[in-house]
Design goal:
By secondary structure, the protein is mainly alpha-helical. Helices cover 74% and strands 4% of the residues.
Length: 224
């Protein structure tokens, strides 16, 4: 596995100065530069990225928490396979957590929350082509609705899974048709919240997550 890592370093590493170490490693895992199943050794990684071993260990722990890396009891680290099963598992959890989160927002939503959600939604509508900008605005939209929820652990799980989905989206970008569907779902969510209809909002959020799952799986298959 060391040879795989060394070969990938020679062929694929490129300077990305505005990214932190964990982001660089996440980017390389999703792109396949750090292949699924490969062992991640701190010394090799420190040489690859030009840093000391302590930042590498910290990055590995962060990526383990996000689901990109598996840490074993003997402290070895391995790249997780980001396959269809993994994606389905993530979205199965998201379709449970997000309806739960939105129900509380329906009860607590203030006018300024909805005004901000509409403003972000209009920015999304004006966004053209840039996947990173789109993902950032999409997360901001949903964050408005979930940030004050009392269940910190539920929000943390959603955030960790969101990192995985956004990273995969950079490799398998959203299609124009999916963008249209996302925008419609967002307006429907705003309308349901404004109508104080928690059941409807939860249904739309679940539909929204399943739509994202289907689209991502389709894009992954198309890339095979």
């Amino acid at each position: 596995m060391s040879e795989v890592l060394a070969s990938s370093e020679r062929k694929t590493f490129r300077p990305r100065p505005r990214m932190g170490l964990a982001e660089l490693m996440r980017d390389d895992i999703v792109s396949g530069a750090l292949p699924a199943g490969s062992l991640l050794k701190t010394i090799e990684l420190s040489k690859r990225y030009g840093v000391s071993t302590n930042p590498v260990r910290e990055a590995l722990h962060q990526l383990s928490g996000e689901g990109f890396v598996v840490l074993s009891r003997n402290r070895s680290a391995q790249v997780r396979s980001l396959d269809e099963t993994f994606v389905r598992n993530i979205f199965d959890i998201r379709t449970l957590i997000e309806p739960y989160l939105i129900r509380v927002f329906v009860e607590q939503a203030r006018k300024d929350d909805l005004d901000r959600a509409r403003a972000v939604q209009k920015q999304l509508e004006a966004s053209h082509g840039d996947q990173i900008e789109w993902d950032s605005l999409d997360e901001e939209f949903h964050g408005i609705m979930y940030k004050r929820h009392f269940n910190d652990e539920a929000r943390a799980i959603r955030q960790r899974h969101g990192e995985v989905v956004r990273a995969l989206a950079r490799r398998y970008p959203i299609s124009p048709a999916r963008r249209v569907a996302v925008l419609k779902d967002h307006w429907d969510i705003i309308d349901a919240v404004e109508a104080h209809d928690a059941d409807l909002a939860a249904t739309i959020v679940e539909r929204h997550a399943r739509g994202a799952e289907r689209h991502l799986l389709l894009r992954m298959r198309e890339a095979l």
